[in-house]
Specification:
- By secondary structure, the protein is α/β, with parallel strands linked by helices.
- The chain has 20 helices and 14 strands.
- The chain has 4 domains: 127 residues, Rossmann fold, CATH 3.40.50; 150 residues, Rossmann fold (3-Layer(aba) Sandwich), CATH 3.40.50.300; 73 residues, Orthogonal Bundle (Helicase, Ruva Protein, domain 3); 46 residues, Orthogonal Bundle (Arc Repressor Mutant, subunit A).
- 48% of the residues lie in helices and 13% in strands.
């Protein structure tokens, strides 16, 4: 496709000369001889570049053309042509949005280079804007899947905090979509046009993570052959997402605290203090309160991160969202793999809804991808599901408790009447004690086994009158 260029030049001879040169270089050219004519054409037709004289004594000047293009929000790069004597005016034109200027008499090769560069930069800007819009749509609230009460409450909280600059701590099991939530917050915030920089604190060794976060100076350590900026600087004016923050080495926690609190730090091996404007969103699947209690995580860093906490519920706590998520990923993979979407039989769907999903949404997504590859028909039957989906359990698989184990003792004792409330209480108590025993008394681990929050477990223990001594004697 030929690139279309509009020339606005009141000197008809010069306009025709430039037009001839540009056509010889493969451009489609339209020449006009006044600013008014040029603006009229710009409002009607699409051009890839405008080349306008800066000084046109009669009528609208090049500066006026620029102002009108800006006011009308016409998306086109502008190069101004000026005499040596009016370079200052050309600089003013660039402040108004001109891409560049060329001086008369101009070098043809330099003119062509400048035009090609302007068109390429404009193309990249449009592609970048398109990508950002796609990201904005992807990470809008519509991009989050779920109609369960817990998810609706989550959307409400995200909406409240997106417009602010507050630090956010996202908690939830592995696979629940913590980074998706972080990106959603960023792309719905005033920082949406700035960088979103993720860093996984668990995936990078402590010896390298300091340099990764804060950068390093040349010669700071063996192999530091050049200065390198870190993630904090890359995220300047944007958002830094600290994933798996609970795995951050204690040796780095003080420096991170200062960077978050004071918005400044020094690169590794450097003495110059670097100031940044960064919003922090952190995420973890670990119990930071418990880590703080046992001294593995600084309490001051925890409080600094925990300004607003968002907890993402595991999939087993929002089973009504499972069909929606399945449908979403079926459509995604059918488009990606260029095949017709399939549907689940009622029996297969029942198994999926009753499954505990220890891997959460990530596991569900992987299941759909696998079925999209392996199942050839347009229906997925129970026999098509992996073995793990065929055994139901009322409780998370990690506890390995069947209904028979607990119910035989309480229900099958030959009694004619059963007190439902007391029986459920005894079963719940037995499950909690078993989880605590398996977790060797660690409440955070026991809560994870039970699929509840640590604070919920503590409340239940208090309500049951189970202090630490009683637990150990049970």
């Amino acid at each position: 496709m030929q690139q279309r260029i509009l020339i606005i030049e009141d000197d008809q001879t010069l306009a025709d000369y430039i037009s001839l040169i540009l056509k010889e270089h493969g451009f489609e050219v339209t020449a006009t001889y006044s600013g008014a004519q040029g603006l009229e054409l710009l409002r009607k037709e699409k051009f890839h570049l405008v080349l306008t004289d800066l000084v046109m004594p009669c009528g609208i000047s090049g500066l006026d053309v620029l102002k009108e293009i800006s006011a009308s929000k016409i998306d086109v790069p502008v190069i101004v042509v000026t005499a040596f004597a009016s370079v200052d005016t050309a600089v003013e034109a660039m402040k108004l949005g001109a891409f560049d200027y060329v001086t008369k008499p101009f070098n043809v090769d330099e003119l062509i280079i400048t035009i090609n560069r302007a068109i390429e930069v404009s193309k990249l800007k449009r592609e970048n804007a398109k990508l950002r819009e796609e990201l904005r749509k992807k990470y809008s609230f519509k991009g989050l899947i779920g109609i369960s009460p817990k998810m609706l409450k989550l959307y409400e909280l995200i909406e409240k905090i997106s417009d602010t600059d507050c630090t956010v701590l996202i908690t939830g099991e592995s696979g629940t979509g913590k980074e998706l939530i972080a990106r959603t917050i960023h792309f719905n915030s005033p920082r949406a046009q700035k960088p979103f920089i993720p860093v996984n604190c668990a995936a990078i060794p402590a010896s390298l993570l300091e340099s990764e976060l804060f950068g390093h100076e040349k010669g700071a350590f063996t192999g530091a052959f050049s200065t390198r900026i870190g993630r904090f600087e890359l995220a300047n004016h944007g958002t830094l997402f600290l994933d798996e923050i609970g795995d951050l080495d204690p040796s780095l926690q003080a420096k991170l605290l200062r960077a978050i609190q004071e918005k400044e730090f020094e690169r590794v091996g450097g003495v110059k203090t670097i100031k940044v404007d960064v919003r922090i969103i952190a995420a973890t699947n670990r119990d930071l309160e418990e880590l703080t209690r046992i001294g593995k995580f600084r309490d001051d860093l925890f409080y600094r991160l925990n300004v607003v906490q968002i907890h993402i519920p595991p999939l087993r706590e929002r089973r009504e969202d499972i069909p929606l998520l399945l449908d979403y990923y079926i459509n995604e993979f059918s488009k990606k793999m260029k095949r017709n979407p399939f549907e689940f039989t009622a029996e297969a769907m029942e198994h999926l809804i009753n499954y505990n999903w220890p891997g959460n949404v990530r596991e569900l997504r992987n299941l759909v991808e696998s079925l999209m590859i392996l199942v050839r028909g347009n229906r997925v039957n129970v026999s098509d599901l992996p073995e793990r989906f065929l055994t139901r359990s009322q409780y998370p698989e990690s506890i390995k408790i069947t209904e028979r184990e607990e119910l035989e003792h309480y229900l099958l004792q030959g009694k004619d009447e059963i007190n439902l409330e007391k029986t459920l209480y005894r079963i719940e108590k037995a499950l909690i004690l078993r989880a605590l025993k398996k977790a060797k008394g660690t409440k955070s681990k026991a809560a994870k086994l039970l699929g509840i929050k640590r604070t919920t477990l503590i409340e239940k223990l208090k309500r049951m009158g189970l202090d630490q001594e009683n637990i150990e004697n049970e």
